[in-house]
Amino acid sequence: MPGHKGNLSPNFALLCKMEDAYKTIFKSGRLYARQFTAADLEEYVKLDSNKDVMRYIGGPRDQETIEKNLKGIIEYYEQHPGFGVWAVCKRRTNEFIGWVCLKNLDQTTEKELGYRLFKSAWGKGYATEISKEALEYGFWDHELSRIVAITVPENVRSLSVIKKLGFRYKREDNFYGKEVQFFALKYGEWERGRGKM
Predict the structure, then answer these.
(1) What is the pLDDT of residues 100-155, one digit of tens each?
(2) Residue 120: strand, helix, or coil
């Protein structure tokens, strides 16, 4: 169960086992994306303090930073309704495996697709699967005209997902204090390429 520390009431613990106990944003065949809650802190700490997961994103975070980041994620839901960073869980077991996001790119109004998964979830097609749903959610539900994505060239796995989703390389740029490759996907390009994904 995501974020369960053993000190929750039995009724609340039961709710946490259910997919709809949290606000589910969208679902795929194997996964669903839902809003984070404070109960997810334990799993979120494991994710963002993992050196392999954070290798290309500035390295592992400390507990204080992670707590602050989770607080910001939860507050973002009210500040930007319909967008944010969402917990990704397996539909069959409700196991938390990481997150996917559709939110404002660093200091811009561009909507950025992003994802971060535990190493145990790599190589199973999860990032591509949940990202496809995030794109559909952004383009159809929110009628976005363009969605962007960034990565560093060394992050071969992330680069592969971005390209598989149909994003097109635009330029080298600097976001979140890092030199990155900037990709974009327009609605028309996404619509034409959906059957090829």
Answers:
(1) 999 999 989 999 999 999 999 999 999 999 999 999 999 999 999 999 999 999 99
(2) helix
pTM: 0.86
Q: Return the bridge partners of 99, or none.
A: 87, 116
Closest CA to 32 of 96, 88, 79: 88
In a domain, 5, yes or no: no
Distance (Å, whole) CA 108 – CA 63: 28
Number of domains in the chain: 1
Query: Is 66 part of any domain?
Result: yes
What the block records as the tokens of 97 is: 């495996």
Query: Residue 99 and residue 101: Cα distance in Å, rounded?
Result: 7
The residue written with tokens 């097609």 in the block is 125
Domain that holds residue 186: 10-196
Cα separation of 75 and 71, whole Å?
6
Query: Could you tell me if residue 116 is inside a domain?
Result: yes
Look at the block and give the residue holding tokens 């539909």. 91
Q: Which residues, listed in sequence order, are joined to residue 184 by a DSSP beta bridge?
A: 148, 168
Alpha carbons 37 and 73: distance in angstroms, whole number: 9
The CATH number of residue 114's host domain is: 3.40.630.30
Dihedral sign from CA coordinates of 25, 56, 44, 19: positive
Estimate to the nearest angstrom the gap between the alpha carbon of 127 and the chain centroid.
Answer: 9
What's the burial of 8, exposed, middle or buried (CB within 10 Å: 0-12/13-18/19+)?
middle
Query: Is 135 inside a domain boundary?
Result: yes
